[in-house]
Amino acid sequence: MSGLRWGVLGTANIARAQFLPAVRETGQRAVLVGGRDRDATAEFARAHGVERSVGGYAAVLEDPEVDAVYVPLPNPLHAEWTVAALRAGKAVLCEKPLCLDPPQVEQVLAVAEAAEQPLWEAFVFPFQAQHARLVELLTEGAIGDLREIVGSFHFEVSRPDDIRLSRETGGGALADVGCYPMRLAHELFQGTAESATATAVLGEQVEVDVSAVLSYPDDRRLLLTCGFRRSYDTTTVLLGTEGSLRLDNPYHPGRGTVLEVRRRGADPVLEKPTQDTRSFSAALRHIAAVLAGEQAPAHTALESALPVGRALHLAQTAVSAPPSSDLARPALAGDLP
Protein backbone atom coordinates (compact mmCIF):
# COMPACT_ATOMS: atom_id res chain seq x y z
CA MET A 1 0.00 0.00 0.00
CA SER A 2 2.58 2.56 -1.06
CA GLY A 3 -0.44 4.63 -2.08
CA LEU A 4 -2.03 4.45 1.38
CA ARG A 5 -4.85 7.01 1.50
CA TRP A 6 -4.83 9.40 4.46
CA GLY A 7 -7.49 11.65 5.92
CA VAL A 8 -6.39 14.57 8.09
CA LEU A 9 -8.42 16.13 10.88
CA GLY A 10 -7.70 19.86 11.02
CA THR A 11 -5.09 22.13 9.53
CA ALA A 12 -2.44 22.10 12.25
CA ASN A 13 1.07 23.36 11.52
CA ILE A 14 2.59 19.94 12.21
CA ALA A 15 0.43 18.46 9.45
CA ARG A 16 1.75 21.07 7.03
CA ALA A 17 5.38 20.97 8.14
CA GLN A 18 5.96 17.31 8.99
CA PHE A 19 3.16 14.90 8.15
CA LEU A 20 2.17 15.94 4.62
CA PRO A 21 5.76 16.21 3.31
CA ALA A 22 6.35 12.67 4.62
CA VAL A 23 3.21 11.46 2.86
CA ARG A 24 4.70 12.78 -0.38
CA GLU A 25 8.17 11.37 0.36
CA THR A 26 6.75 7.87 0.86
CA GLY A 27 4.49 7.93 -2.20
CA GLN A 28 1.31 7.83 -0.15
CA ARG A 29 -1.74 10.06 -0.69
CA ALA A 30 -3.44 12.72 1.40
CA VAL A 31 -6.93 12.36 -0.03
CA LEU A 32 -9.02 14.44 2.36
CA VAL A 33 -8.69 17.10 5.05
CA GLY A 34 -11.55 18.26 7.26
CA GLY A 35 -11.67 21.51 9.21
CA ARG A 36 -14.07 23.80 11.02
CA ASP A 37 -13.70 26.62 8.49
CA ARG A 38 -14.57 25.22 5.05
CA ASP A 39 -12.87 28.01 3.07
CA ALA A 40 -9.68 27.96 5.14
CA THR A 41 -9.58 24.17 4.91
CA ALA A 42 -9.97 24.30 1.13
CA GLU A 43 -7.08 26.76 0.90
CA PHE A 44 -4.96 24.50 3.15
CA ALA A 45 -5.67 21.56 0.84
CA ARG A 46 -4.68 23.54 -2.26
CA ALA A 47 -1.50 24.85 -0.68
CA HIS A 48 -0.27 21.54 0.73
CA GLY A 49 -1.22 18.90 -1.78
CA VAL A 50 -4.33 17.39 -0.21
CA GLU A 51 -6.68 16.12 -2.90
CA ARG A 52 -10.00 17.20 -1.36
CA SER A 53 -11.34 19.18 1.58
CA VAL A 54 -14.54 19.11 3.60
CA GLY A 55 -16.13 21.07 6.42
CA GLY A 56 -15.91 19.33 9.79
CA TYR A 57 -14.14 16.19 10.96
CA ALA A 58 -16.88 13.55 10.84
CA ALA A 59 -17.02 13.52 7.04
CA VAL A 60 -13.37 12.46 6.93
CA LEU A 61 -14.15 9.39 9.03
CA GLU A 62 -17.16 8.51 6.89
CA ASP A 63 -15.29 8.69 3.57
CA PRO A 64 -14.72 5.23 2.07
CA GLU A 65 -11.57 6.41 0.27
CA VAL A 66 -9.79 7.07 3.58
CA ASP A 67 -7.70 4.14 4.85
CA ALA A 68 -6.05 5.85 7.81
CA VAL A 69 -6.60 9.05 9.78
CA TYR A 70 -4.06 11.51 11.17
CA VAL A 71 -5.28 13.41 14.25
CA PRO A 72 -3.21 16.59 14.89
CA LEU A 73 -6.00 18.39 16.75
CA PRO A 74 -5.52 20.28 20.04
CA ASN A 75 -4.82 17.91 22.94
CA PRO A 76 -8.31 17.98 24.52
CA LEU A 77 -9.81 16.69 21.24
CA HIS A 78 -7.49 13.71 20.80
CA ALA A 79 -9.54 11.19 22.76
CA GLU A 80 -12.90 12.01 21.19
CA TRP A 81 -11.76 11.93 17.59
CA THR A 82 -9.35 9.03 17.97
CA VAL A 83 -12.16 6.92 19.37
CA ALA A 84 -14.50 8.08 16.59
CA ALA A 85 -11.93 7.17 13.91
CA LEU A 86 -11.26 3.74 15.40
CA ARG A 87 -14.98 3.04 15.58
CA ALA A 88 -15.26 4.08 11.94
CA GLY A 89 -12.82 1.29 11.06
CA LYS A 90 -9.82 3.50 10.32
CA ALA A 91 -6.22 3.04 11.37
CA VAL A 92 -5.20 6.08 13.43
CA LEU A 93 -2.03 8.09 13.96
CA CYS A 94 -2.79 10.53 16.78
CA GLU A 95 -0.49 13.34 17.82
CA LYS A 96 1.13 13.18 21.22
CA PRO A 97 0.16 13.16 23.97
CA LEU A 98 -2.64 10.72 23.21
CA CYS A 99 -4.75 12.02 26.12
CA LEU A 100 -4.65 14.49 28.97
CA ASP A 101 -4.54 12.04 31.88
CA PRO A 102 -4.03 8.29 32.53
CA PRO A 103 -7.73 7.41 33.05
CA GLN A 104 -8.55 8.93 29.66
CA VAL A 105 -5.67 7.00 28.09
CA GLU A 106 -7.11 3.79 29.54
CA GLN A 107 -10.51 4.56 28.04
CA VAL A 108 -9.09 5.17 24.57
CA LEU A 109 -6.89 2.08 24.73
CA ALA A 110 -9.90 -0.04 25.67
CA VAL A 111 -11.48 1.02 22.38
CA ALA A 112 -8.21 0.49 20.51
CA GLU A 113 -7.81 -3.02 21.87
CA ALA A 114 -11.15 -4.04 20.37
CA ALA A 115 -10.79 -2.03 17.16
CA GLU A 116 -10.42 -3.47 13.68
CA GLN A 117 -7.40 -1.28 12.89
CA PRO A 118 -4.34 -0.23 14.96
CA LEU A 119 -3.70 3.00 16.83
CA TRP A 120 -0.33 4.74 16.95
CA GLU A 121 0.66 7.75 19.05
CA ALA A 122 2.78 10.07 16.89
CA PHE A 123 6.13 9.46 18.51
CA VAL A 124 7.68 8.60 15.16
CA PHE A 125 11.30 8.23 16.26
CA PRO A 126 11.11 4.49 17.16
CA PHE A 127 10.66 3.70 13.45
CA GLN A 128 13.73 5.60 12.27
CA ALA A 129 17.08 4.13 11.25
CA GLN A 130 18.88 6.20 13.88
CA HIS A 131 16.73 4.73 16.66
CA ALA A 132 17.23 1.20 15.34
CA ARG A 133 20.99 1.79 15.44
CA LEU A 134 20.74 3.22 18.96
CA VAL A 135 18.90 0.11 20.20
CA GLU A 136 21.41 -2.11 18.42
CA LEU A 137 24.34 -0.36 20.12
CA LEU A 138 22.73 -0.66 23.54
CA THR A 139 21.93 -4.34 22.96
CA GLU A 140 25.54 -4.97 21.94
CA GLY A 141 26.72 -3.37 25.20
CA ALA A 142 28.42 -0.41 23.55
CA ILE A 143 28.13 1.66 26.74
CA GLY A 144 27.57 -1.15 29.23
CA ASP A 145 24.44 -1.03 31.38
CA LEU A 146 22.29 2.04 30.67
CA ARG A 147 21.81 3.89 33.96
CA GLU A 148 20.75 7.42 33.11
CA ILE A 149 19.25 9.48 30.27
CA VAL A 150 19.81 13.24 30.14
CA GLY A 151 17.50 14.80 27.60
CA SER A 152 16.34 18.22 26.50
CA PHE A 153 13.62 19.46 24.18
CA HIS A 154 13.37 23.22 23.77
CA PHE A 155 12.21 25.70 21.18
CA GLU A 156 11.03 29.28 21.32
CA VAL A 157 7.33 30.15 21.36
CA SER A 158 6.99 33.84 20.53
CA ARG A 159 3.27 34.27 19.81
CA PRO A 160 1.22 34.98 22.95
CA ASP A 161 -1.84 33.33 21.36
CA ASP A 162 -0.04 30.02 20.69
CA ILE A 163 -2.22 27.13 21.91
CA ARG A 164 0.81 25.64 23.68
CA LEU A 165 0.47 28.46 26.21
CA SER A 166 -3.20 27.78 26.93
CA ARG A 167 -4.45 25.59 29.76
CA GLU A 168 -7.78 25.21 27.97
CA THR A 169 -6.10 23.53 25.00
CA GLY A 170 -3.95 21.23 27.16
CA GLY A 171 -0.75 23.20 26.66
CA GLY A 172 2.42 23.38 28.68
CA ALA A 173 6.02 22.40 28.06
CA LEU A 174 5.67 18.94 29.56
CA ALA A 175 2.71 17.86 27.42
CA ASP A 176 4.12 19.40 24.26
CA VAL A 177 7.76 18.32 24.33
CA GLY A 178 8.66 16.91 27.76
CA CYS A 179 6.79 13.75 26.82
CA TYR A 180 9.42 12.90 24.19
CA PRO A 181 12.20 12.05 26.67
CA MET A 182 9.60 10.15 28.70
CA ARG A 183 8.72 8.01 25.67
CA LEU A 184 12.41 7.34 25.02
CA ALA A 185 13.05 6.44 28.67
CA HIS A 186 10.08 4.07 28.81
CA GLU A 187 11.42 2.06 25.89
CA LEU A 188 15.09 2.06 26.80
CA PHE A 189 14.58 1.44 30.53
CA GLN A 190 11.81 -1.07 29.77
CA GLY A 191 9.83 0.17 32.75
CA THR A 192 7.39 2.74 34.03
CA ALA A 193 8.34 5.91 35.94
CA GLU A 194 7.85 5.56 39.68
CA SER A 195 8.25 9.13 40.97
CA ALA A 196 9.14 12.63 39.82
CA THR A 197 10.59 15.85 41.15
CA ALA A 198 10.39 19.05 39.14
CA THR A 199 10.88 22.78 39.14
CA ALA A 200 9.26 25.09 36.62
CA VAL A 201 8.93 28.60 35.28
CA LEU A 202 5.22 29.32 35.09
CA GLY A 203 3.56 31.45 32.44
CA GLU A 204 0.13 32.99 32.79
CA GLN A 205 -1.60 29.63 32.38
CA VAL A 206 0.93 26.80 31.98
CA GLU A 207 4.52 25.88 32.69
CA VAL A 208 6.85 27.30 30.01
CA ASP A 209 10.17 25.86 31.22
CA VAL A 210 10.75 22.73 33.30
CA SER A 211 13.58 20.70 34.75
CA ALA A 212 12.61 17.32 36.16
CA VAL A 213 14.00 14.03 37.43
CA LEU A 214 11.96 10.87 36.96
CA SER A 215 12.98 7.64 38.67
CA TYR A 216 12.58 4.23 37.06
CA PRO A 217 12.99 0.66 38.35
CA ASP A 218 16.49 -0.54 39.27
CA ASP A 219 17.57 2.97 40.31
CA ARG A 220 17.64 4.32 36.75
CA ARG A 221 16.64 7.89 36.09
CA LEU A 222 15.67 10.40 33.44
CA LEU A 223 16.88 13.98 33.81
CA LEU A 224 14.94 16.21 31.42
CA THR A 225 14.59 19.85 30.63
CA CYS A 226 11.98 21.24 28.26
CA GLY A 227 10.46 24.56 27.44
CA PHE A 228 9.45 27.35 25.11
CA ARG A 229 12.06 30.00 25.98
CA ARG A 230 15.19 29.19 23.97
CA SER A 231 16.38 28.01 20.59
CA TYR A 232 15.65 24.55 19.24
CA ASP A 233 17.57 21.89 21.17
CA THR A 234 16.95 18.17 21.56
CA THR A 235 20.43 17.08 22.67
CA THR A 236 20.27 13.77 24.53
CA VAL A 237 22.98 11.79 26.31
CA LEU A 238 22.66 8.16 27.40
CA LEU A 239 25.02 7.28 30.26
CA GLY A 240 26.11 3.71 30.92
CA THR A 241 28.52 1.82 33.13
CA GLU A 242 31.15 1.72 30.35
CA GLY A 243 30.55 4.85 28.31
CA SER A 244 28.08 7.32 26.88
CA LEU A 245 26.05 7.78 23.73
CA ARG A 246 25.14 11.26 22.49
CA LEU A 247 22.40 12.14 20.01
CA ASP A 248 22.04 15.54 18.36
CA ASN A 249 18.36 14.88 17.75
CA PRO A 250 16.79 11.55 18.78
CA TYR A 251 13.23 12.58 17.85
CA HIS A 252 13.27 14.26 14.44
CA PRO A 253 16.70 13.53 12.96
CA GLY A 254 17.61 14.55 9.45
CA ARG A 255 20.30 13.43 7.08
CA GLY A 256 23.60 14.25 8.70
CA THR A 257 22.31 14.11 12.29
CA VAL A 258 25.09 12.70 14.46
CA LEU A 259 25.07 9.76 16.86
CA GLU A 260 28.28 9.60 18.92
CA VAL A 261 29.63 6.78 21.10
CA ARG A 262 32.30 7.49 23.72
CA ARG A 263 34.17 4.90 25.80
CA ARG A 264 37.08 5.42 28.14
CA GLY A 265 40.41 4.96 26.39
CA ALA A 266 38.91 4.98 22.90
CA ASP A 267 38.36 7.65 20.28
CA PRO A 268 34.76 8.83 19.83
CA VAL A 269 32.86 6.99 17.12
CA LEU A 270 30.49 9.15 15.03
CA GLU A 271 27.70 7.74 12.89
CA LYS A 272 24.98 9.29 10.73
CA PRO A 273 22.33 6.56 10.28
CA THR A 274 19.41 8.72 9.11
CA GLN A 275 18.45 8.43 5.45
CA ASP A 276 14.96 9.95 5.28
CA THR A 277 14.47 13.63 4.66
CA ARG A 278 11.29 13.69 6.77
CA SER A 279 11.09 12.28 10.28
CA PHE A 280 7.56 10.89 9.79
CA SER A 281 8.48 8.86 6.71
CA ALA A 282 9.62 5.63 8.38
CA ALA A 283 6.49 5.51 10.54
CA LEU A 284 4.25 6.04 7.50
CA ARG A 285 5.99 3.26 5.60
CA HIS A 286 5.42 0.94 8.55
CA ILE A 287 1.74 1.84 8.81
CA ALA A 288 1.28 1.16 5.11
CA ALA A 289 3.02 -2.21 5.44
CA VAL A 290 0.80 -3.13 8.40
CA LEU A 291 -2.39 -2.26 6.54
CA ALA A 292 -1.14 -4.25 3.53
CA GLY A 293 -0.61 -7.31 5.75
CA GLU A 294 3.16 -7.22 5.22
CA GLN A 295 4.24 -6.41 8.78
CA ALA A 296 2.89 -6.88 12.28
CA PRO A 297 2.06 -3.60 14.07
CA ALA A 298 4.99 -2.26 16.11
CA HIS A 299 5.30 0.60 18.62
CA THR A 300 1.53 0.98 18.90
CA ALA A 301 -0.24 3.10 21.48
CA LEU A 302 -1.23 -0.09 23.30
CA GLU A 303 2.44 -0.66 24.12
CA SER A 304 3.50 2.75 25.37
CA ALA A 305 0.73 5.35 25.73
CA LEU A 306 -0.27 4.46 29.28
CA PRO A 307 3.26 4.33 30.78
CA VAL A 308 4.10 7.63 29.09
CA GLY A 309 0.79 9.12 30.24
CA ARG A 310 1.59 8.12 33.82
CA ALA A 311 5.08 9.60 33.62
CA LEU A 312 3.63 12.83 32.24
CA HIS A 313 1.07 12.93 35.05
CA LEU A 314 3.81 12.45 37.65
CA ALA A 315 5.85 15.34 36.25
CA GLN A 316 2.84 17.63 35.90
CA THR A 317 1.80 16.87 39.47
CA ALA A 318 5.30 17.64 40.71
CA VAL A 319 5.21 20.99 38.89
CA SER A 320 1.81 22.00 40.26
CA ALA A 321 2.27 20.75 43.82
CA PRO A 322 3.43 23.39 46.36
CA PRO A 323 6.90 22.99 47.88
CA SER A 324 7.09 21.30 51.26
CA SER A 325 6.95 23.78 54.13
CA ASP A 326 9.46 21.70 56.05
CA LEU A 327 12.12 20.99 53.45
CA ALA A 328 13.63 23.30 50.83
CA ARG A 329 13.30 20.86 47.94
CA PRO A 330 10.99 20.31 44.94
CA ALA A 331 7.67 18.66 45.67
CA LEU A 332 7.61 14.88 45.21
CA ALA A 333 4.85 13.18 43.23
CA GLY A 334 4.45 9.66 44.60
CA ASP A 335 3.61 6.51 42.69
CA LEU A 336 0.32 6.45 40.84
CA PRO A 337 -2.19 3.92 42.12
TrEMBL record:
The keyword NAD applies. Residues 132-246 form the GFO/IDH/MocA-like oxidoreductase domain. It comes from the Bacteria. The keyword Cytoplasm does not apply. One of its GO terms (molecular function) is nucleotide binding. Keywords: NAD, Oxidoreductase. Residues 4-121 form the Gfo/Idh/MocA-like oxidoreductase N-terminal domain. Pfam families: GFO_IDH_MocA, GFO_IDH_MocA_C3. Belongs to the Gfo/Idh/MocA family. This is Putative dehydrogenase. It comes from Phycicoccus duodecadis.
